[in-house]
Design a protein that fits this description.
Hemerythrin-like; about 150 residues; oxygen carrier activity; binds fe (ii) ion; Four Helix Bundle (Hemerythrin (Met), subunit A)
Length: about 150
C-alpha cells in the first residue's frame, strides 16, 4: 500500500500538472520504504535525484501556467516553490554527506508538499486555469506588456 495516494480532490484542473503531482507522489512513495528500512545510499539517492528533477520541471511549468492564466499571487507561490526545492535539495545533500535522514523529516516534507501545498496553495490558482472569465484579464495584461 502506498504511503500517500493522489485523489481527485487534489486535481488542479490541468492534466499535465496533475500528472506532475502524481509523479512526485510516486517518488515520495518510493522513497519512504527505502528510508524506513535504511536501504543503501545509492538507492535512496537515485530516487532523490528523480524527485529533484520532477520538482524542478513541475515548479517551472506551474509558474509559467499561473502567469499565463493571470493568477495574481504567482510570485508568492513561486517563493513557496523555492523553499520547497531548498528542502528537497537539503535532504539530498544530507544523504550524499552520509547524514542520517529520519522518517520524521520525510513525513514533514510530504505534509508540507501535499496537504499545505497541493490542497492549499495549488488549488488557489484553479479558478484562473479553468474559468474562461479569468482568461480575458490575463490576455489583456499580456497584450499591455504587464507581467501579471
Ligand atoms: Fe505549486
Ligand atoms: Fe504543484
Amino acid at each position: 500500500m502506498n504511503f500517500v495516494e493522489w485523489t481527485a480532490e487534489m486535481s488542479v484542473g490541468s492534466d499535465a500538472l496533475d500528472d506532475h503531482h502524481k509523479m512526485i507522489i510516486d517518488c515520495l512513495n518510493d522513497l519512504h520504504p527505502l528510508l524506513e528500512t535504511h536501504a543503501p545510499e545509492d538507492k535512496v539517492l537515485a530516487v532523490m535525484a528523480k524527485l529533484e528533477d520532477f520538482v524542478l520541471v513541475h515548479f517551472s511549468q506551474e509558474e509559467q501556467d499561473m502567469k499565463r492564466a493571470g493568477y495574481p499571487d504567482w510570485q508568492a507561490h513561486k517563493a513557496l516553490h523555492d523553499s520547497m526545492y531548498d528542502v528537497v535539495f537539503a535532504l539530498k545533500s544530507d544523504i550524499q554527506n552520509g547524514e542520517n535522514v529520519d522518517a520524521q523529516r520525510l513525513f514533514q516534507l510530504i505534509q508540507d508538499w501535499l496537504v499545505t501545498h497541493i490542497l492549499g496553495e495549488d488549488r488557489k490558482y484553479v479558478p484562473y486555469m479553468t474559468d474562461p472569465a479569468a482568461k480575458p484579464v490575463a490576455q489583456w495584461k499580456r497584450s499591455n506588456g504587464r507581467d501579471c
